[in-house]
Design brief:
Largest sheet: 9 strands, parallel
Number of domains: 2
Structural class: alpha/beta
Distance between the termini: 39 Å
Shape: globular
Bound molecules: flavin mononucleotide
Helix content: 40-55%
CATH architecture of the largest domain: Alpha-Beta Barrel
Number of helices: 15
Radius of gyration: 20 Å
Oligomer: single chain
CATH superfamily of the largest domain: Aldolase class I
Length: 342
């Protein structure tokens, strides 16, 4: 681990973007092991933390020695966000607090939180200030370039959160109205970087480690977050580190892929945040819940390899770790026997 400041871009600066339903402890651990420079939890409701909701605290479960990691939270009231940040800091496990100002999900936006904060920049700045006063951890903001092209206010937002004392701004280069598709405006992200003295990271559409490093260099940003490209592919960070150091990265081997699927599953089995799912899953409990959560990752782990469509067909019938590993083994034996790609 380098001693370069976390957000400054001086060291390797390609990290894991927060993704609800994905970036649990298991995915973050694998990403950090493969070289991600930082990670963030799934988004948590600040009010849940102030109300001592067990479920919310479970989403903040981290691995021993999991660093650097942010508690990523949404909310609307500065005082509630500040108290939530204080409680997250008190857990002694987080390296920074990140404010969600980009989530377009209706349930969150309807409360005035997530992406809705882009429409109320003074409130977002007040939240940054309140958290800064409440905790000693760095405070960062993850946002978009605006709610819509007509209301693009990322310049004003960046100036306001810098003034309020944010340590870094992570910008997903899409408008909230476009959710997760459509063009990513890296030019705009790069121009914000030129204007601000606070570190600015870009995010959106990096699908390989090489691409992430190229985006960082081309647009001069301090770092890049990778989201979907890391699902079922923690090696994207190994590739990025190699690219940053000017080396070729070792491709992941099939044995490594199998071992990673197994490690991923075994970590999921122990996650407290899956307890509700355990109850729904019934008799097979933790293991079945873990298999359910792994499904979208698994399709990416084996995607494109011969026989992966068969894995997709079997997905809903898998109940145990052995079921999953058997399916992975069949794909691996297809590769070894020289079967063509699907
Ligand atoms: C399933 C899913 C869940 C996401 N959840 C969050 C979230 O909770 N908070 C957030 O700031 N962004 C969230 N995002 C957005 C990602 O962090 C990222 O900005 C976006 O996926 C673009 O990056 P990518 O092209 O590398 O995936 C989510 C994205 C996806 C696909």
């Amino acid at each position: 681990m380098s001693n370069a400041p976390l957000f400054s871009g001086e060291g390797f600066s390609i990290g894991l973007a927060p993704m609800a339903g994905f970036t649990d402890r298991a995915m973050r651990t694998l990403s950090l092991e493969q070289g991600a420079c930082l990670a963030m939890t799934e988004v948590v409701n600040a009010a849940g933390l102030t109300h001592d909701s067990k479920r919310t605290f479970h989403l903040l479960e981290t691995a021993k020695d999991e660093h650097p990691v942010a508690a990523h939270m949404y909310g609307i009231e500065p005082a509630v966000m500040a108290e939530a940040a204080r409680r997250a800091e008190a857990l002694g496990r987080f390296d920074f607090i990140d404010i969600n100002s980009g989530c377009p999900v209706r349930k969150i936006v309807a409360k005035g939180a997530g992406a809705a904060l882009m429409g109320d920049v003074p409130r977002l700045a007040a939240i940054v200030r309140a958290i800064r006063e409440a905790v000693s951890l760095p405070v960062t903001v993850k946002t978009r370039i605006g709610l819509t092209p007509e209301t693009c206010n990322i310049r004003e937002l960046a100036a306001a959160v810098e003034d309020a004392g944010a340590s870094c701004l992570f910008i997903h280069g899409r408008f909230a109205c476009n959710k997760h598709s459509g063009p990513v405006d890296w030019e705009l992200i790069g121009s914000i970087k030129q204007e601000r003295s606070m570190p600015i990271w870009g995010n959106g559409s990096a699908r390989t480690g090489v691409e992430a490093v190229q985006l960082q260099k081309t647009y001069g940003v301090d770092g890049v977050l990778i989201g979907r490209g890391a699902i079922g592919n923690p090696w994207i960070f190994r590739e990025a580190r190699a690219a940053w150091e000017g080396r070729e990265s070792a491709p992941r081997s099939l044995d490594e892929m199998r071992a990673t699927v197994e490690a991923h599953l075994r970590d999921l089995v122990g996650l407290k945040s899956l307890e509700r799912k355990y109850r729904r899953a019934g008799a097979l409990a933790a293991e079945t819940a873990a298999v359910m959560v792994l499904r979208p990752h698994l399709l990416k782990y084996v995607g494109g390899l011969p026989g992966w469509r068969e894995v997709r067909r079997q997905l809903n019938d898998m109940r145990t770790i052995d079921d999953v590993l058997l399916a992975v083994d069949s794909v691996i034996s297809n590769v070894k026997s020289g079967a063509g790609r699907d």
